[in-house]
Each structure stands twice: as C-alpha cells, then as structure tokens.
Amino acid sequence: MEHQINGIALPNREGFFGVYGGQFIPPDLKQAMDDINAAYEQIRHTEEFQDELKDLFANYVGRPSPLFFAKRLTDQLGGAEIYLKREDLNHTGAHKINHCLGEALLAKYMGKTKVIAETGAGQHGVALATACALVGIPCEIHMGQVDIEKEHPNVVKMKILGARLISVTRGTATLKDAVDSAFEEYLKDPKNYIYAIGSVVGPHPFPMMVRDFQAIIGEEIKVQTSARFGANPDYVVACVGGGSNALGAFTAFLNDPDVKLVGVEPAGHGLDTDMHSATLTLGKPSQIHGMACYVLENDQGEPLPVHSIASGLDYPGVGPQHSLLKDLGRVEYTTATDQECLDAFMTLSRVEGIVPALESSHAVAWALREAPKLGKDIKIVVNISGRGDKDADYVAAKLGLN
C-alpha cells in the first residue's frame, strides 16, 4: 500500500517525506541501505511473506489488540468517551513486536548473520530479541547505562532471550548514545549484519519500513471503532519519541479530515528548562542519524542532551514523517510533563486496573487534561503503546510506594 497526503508521497523514491528523511550517510552505508530497501520491496508484496507475518501477528503476538472503553475513567472525568488501544497486551508487552517480527523475517530472507539494535526503555530490545530467537538469528542490543539501571526487568528478559547486551556509557548514556554505538558496530560489517532500527527514524528505508509494519494499529482501530459505534473516532492520541507507535496509530487516518490526530511529546521538567525531549515543539529542521528531521540542537549544530522520565522518549530527533506532518498541520503536537505522566500512570492504574508504560502515560495525560473540556459525544482513542511492568519499580521508588 502506497501512502500519500495532500499529493505528497510518504515517502518518495529517494526516501524523502517532503524535505525530511533521505539518506545522509557514507557511500558504503548507502549501498547497504539500498540493499535493504531492495530486499524489502521484493518481499513485502509476496503472498508468502504477508501470510507468514499475518500468521505471526494472530498466533504469536495475539492481534488484533483489543479496543477497551475506559468507562470508569470516562465517568470520573465527565467529558469525552475514552477508549484504549491495548498494544500493552501484545506478546512482549508493547507495539515494538509489530516491526521487530518484520525486521527479523527480512534479516532471515537476506541471510544476515547478526541483528544489531539500540533500545531506550528496553521494549524494542526485548521485542527484537524475541523475534530473533523465533527465527534463529544472533541478536546484539546496545543500551545506555542510565536506561539499563532504570529498566532492569527488560534487561533481564533480553539476556534470557539470548541477546548480547552492550552497555553504553558515553555521553548521557541514554538512547541517542545507544544509537551511535549500535551504528558503529553495524558499520564494521554492513554486508553480513543488519541494523534493525527501533522506530520510524534513521536513513531510508527504515522510517517507511517501520511505519508500514506498525500501520496495523490504526487499521485495527478503524475497523474496531466502526464496529463499536459506526464511525471513526474524533481523536487518536499517542506519545511521540521517535514516533513509531504514533505513526502506527495515525497512518490509517491521515486522509480522514474528521479525525484529529494528537502526538504528545515529553516536556520533562518543563519547556522552560533544558530537561525535556520536546523535539517537534522546540526543535528545528536539521540532520541526525542519517536523516533530515526536526532536532533539538545547540548553536554549534550538535544534538542537545535531552530528558524524559520515559526512557523510550528521550531522543533529540524524531521521525521524518512526523516532521512533515507538523509542517502540514495534519497532526497537533503537544506535550506532557514528567509530573503529568506520573499522575496519568497512577490514575489509569487505580481507576481502570491498567498499568501503562511511562511512555504511553504521556498520551493518557493528554486525555486526562483535555477530555473534561470535550462533549460527551466525542470519542477519543488513546494508544497504550506498552505496559508498565518495566517501570513499576522505578515509579514505586520515586513515589515512595515500596
């Protein structure tokens, strides 16, 4: 399926979404990326690949993920109806398994000997380690030391699944540094290795490819809301770091003007501080990790240190398609602070018995803030991109619950 908005290809043949995206990489890496793109284009339309992926989605991941009406939360807020897209119920606990299965199958098809990846909160790492175990390919995960300490449950899972975990201590020892480290390892042998990027970021074809695998989220939402109340939802809301779960939820609705799309970035300690990751809100067009996109950077053009309570969102860049959608005004990009995120985490846990990931809690925070202002006939779908098991110990310590 080819994607367009306002006559703009998403992406064009060179991998650009408007002026964003592309391949800003060395010539030897460009050939490797072009090989991946050619292999992806070759297999993605084949019946065999689609049937295998469809079978795994249904019988391994557990798709379709449910659409749950949060009745108690809706009644408590007294405004719009809130529905939760339960990606947290997928095998491995998040949306990441959707594209990791696709990437692992592609690696197997291409005869790669090692899959390399970065991870922030650990959900991409766990999902990729899972997919690699399933298809029988060695897996190496690069993770910032700060995130390793915050996300201990996911670290243990990756090791159990057989992944080799590389602790990254340079820079801020978080997601951006893990990406740098993983890229360096990949460059040692791009012919035999594949870098399985964990979001809709990086050089073409990854922003397109990861988006395509994640688009099933929005496709399911469209079918489920039609069956539930005979129409599209009024709002679809998702958190945005790199932006894979958000594009997964938004893609099916991009050309439906009746649906408002909202991406929620991390405001951290506040937009007036240097402790946030609000790339689309406060960044500017630049380049990072082989792509053109919005970037938070200093006067010297270097990426700024960023912060979010959610390890999966602390990235100074963002997906190139999100950058275009911001410029077009098709998606409203807004923010939630660390405190709003924590409040949302606890509220959803105690009102609906659903413990969301801190990443997803940013989207929940928007619903808590905005739903009371909207009419009771308005329907909001919040993408619960992951579950909060990985964050429970950290939140408990922060709030003095242990």
UniProtKB/TrEMBL annotation:
Its EC number is 4.2.1.20. Pathway: Amino-acid biosynthesis; L-tryptophan biosynthesis; L-tryptophan from chorismate: step 5/5. Keywords: Amino-acid biosynthesis, Aromatic amino acid biosynthesis, Lyase, Pyridoxal phosphate, Tryptophan biosynthesis. GO terms for cellular component: cytoplasm. The keyword Nucleus does not apply. InterPro entries: Trp_synth_b_CS (IPR006653), Trp_synth_beta (IPR006654), Trp_synth_beta/beta-like (IPR023026), TrpB-like_PALP (IPR001926), TrpB-like_PALP_sf (IPR036052). Residues 62-386 form the Tryptophan synthase beta chain-like PALP domain. It is an enzyme of class 4 (lyase). The modification N6-(pyridoxal phosphate)lysine is found at residue 96. Coiled coil: none annotated. Its cofactor is pyridoxal 5'-phosphate. GO terms for molecular function: tryptophan synthase activity. Signal peptide: none annotated. It catalyses: (1S,2R)-1-C-(indol-3-yl)glycerol 3-phosphate + L-serine = D-glyceraldehyde 3-phosphate + L-tryptophan + H2O. Belongs to the TrpB family. The beta subunit is responsible for the synthesis of L-tryptophan from indole and L-serine. PANTHER family: TRYPTOPHAN SYNTHASE, TRYPTOPHAN SYNTHASE-RELATED. Tetramer of two alpha and two beta chains. This is Tryptophan synthase beta chain. The lineage of its organism: Bacteria, Pseudomonadati, Pseudomonadota, Gammaproteobacteria, Moraxellales.
